[in-house]
Amino acid sequence: MLTNTHPSIPGPMHGPKSGPDPLAEIRAARAFLMRLIDRYCPDLEHLVLHIGPLAAAERLRSGDIPGILREQVTPDGVRAAAAAVEVDAETSARCGARLLIPEDEQWPTALAATMGIPGAQGMWVRGRAGLEMLSQPSVVVSGARAASGYGIHVATDLAGELSGAGRVIMSGAGFGIDAAAHRGALAAQGTTVAVLPCGIDRAHPSAHEHLLDRIAENGLVVSAQPPRTMMTRARVLDRNRLLAALGDATVVVEAAARSGVLHLAGAANASGRPVMAVPGPVTSALSVGTHRLIRDGATMVTGSGDVIAGLRQPWYP
C-alpha cells in the first residue's frame, strides 16, 4: 500500500487527540501527486478524476505512466517525488502545517465545484484558525507592490471595514497593498488568509516572516506548493489563480499598466468572481491598471459598501 512507504502526512483530523486519520492513504497519495509535477497539470488532474487519487498514485509509482503524462513524468521523477514526500511530512510537522485535501469535510466550498485550478490535489495550511474559515464570506484585496501612501491608506481602511462587516480578507502577503490589506484586517481584529507562491514552511517575501506569523496566530497561511518549494514566476501565477478562486470577489487597489495583479483580476474573472478596482489620481502611473479595469467593466470601489453591493455582479470585459 502507498502509506507503507510514507510517514503520516499531517491532516485536519490527524493527531494524538483525534485518533488515526481515516484519510491517511488518500492524503499520502495526494501528497505524492503534488510532488510529482512542478506545477498545476491538467492532464494529471484528469487522470485523478478518472481513476481516483489512490489508483493514480499507485499506477504512476509502479511505472505505468499514461502517454499524456510521459513528457512530464519520468521514472526518475517518480522516485524523487516518493523520496521528497517523506521529507515533506517531517517539514510540515515541524512548522505546524497540515495537508487539506478535497476528501476532507473542511475543503473550501468555493473550490468544490471549480475545475482547472492549482491546489486540485490539496493545499498545505498552517494557522490556529479553523479550516472552515476558507469557506466563509471573503474578499481578496491586492495591488501594487510599490504602492503609494494613498494606496496603503485605502487598502488598510478597506480591509478593516470589510473585516468589520464579517468578511475574511485574503491576499498574497506581498509588499505594498497585500501587506496593507493583511495589516488592516489584523488591526480591526478581523481574520485574514495569506496564500503563498512557495512552500508553507517558507516566508515570501522573507521580510514578511513576522507578518505571516501574526496572520497564522488567528488566521491561516495557505500554499498549493509542497513544503521547501521555492517561489518562481510560474508559481506566482498559479498562486494568483488559487487566490482568485478562493475569494468571493477580488478588489485591486493600485496597479501599473503591466502589473502582475492584473493577472489576478483576470483569474478572478475566469473563475466567475466579481472584479472591482479602486480609482486613483489620473496623474499616477499606479492608477493606469485600475482605471483600465474600471473602463472594461470592473466595479468601481470607493468604500466597503461598494464591495458588499457588487459581490454578485460578475465582470465581463
Please, what is the average pLDDT? 91
Poorly predicted regions: 1-6
CATH topology of the largest domain: Rossmann fold
What order do the strands of the largest sheet run in, or round the barrel if closed? Answer: 1-2-6-5-4-3-7-8-9
Helical fraction equals 40-55%
N/C terminus separation: 49 Å
Count of the separate structural domains:
2
Count of helical stretches: 12
Question: How much strand?
Answer: 5-15%
How many DSSP E strands? 9
Topology order in helix (H) and strand (E) letters: HHHHEHEEHEHEHEHEHEHEH
Largest sheet: 9 strands, mixed
The general outline is globular
What's the CATH class label of the largest domain? Alpha Beta
Rg from alpha-carbon coordinates: 20 Å
Structural class: alpha/beta
Known CATH architecture of the largest domain? 3-Layer(aba) Sandwich
Protein name: DNA-processing protein DprA
Domain Smf/DprA SLOG: 99-309
Family: Belongs to the DprA/Smf family.
Region (Disordered): 1-22
Protein described:
This is DNA-processing protein DprA. InterPro entries: DprA (IPR003488), DrpA_SLOG (IPR057666). It holds the Pfam family DNA_processg_A. Residues 1-22 are annotated as: Disordered. Residues 99-309 form the Smf/DprA SLOG domain. By secondary structure, the protein is α/β, with parallel strands linked by helices. The protein folds into 2 domains: 16-95, no CATH class; 131-309, 3-Layer(aba) Sandwich (Rossmann fold). Helices cover 42% and strands 12% of the residues. The chain has a 9-stranded mixed sheet with strand order 1-2-6-5-4-3-7-8-9, with helices on both faces. Strand 3, helix 6 and strand 4 form a beta-alpha-beta unit. Helix 2 (42-51) crosses helix 3, helix 6 packs parallel to helix 7 and helix 9 (233-246) crosses helix 10. The model is unreliable at 1-6 (pLDDT under 50).
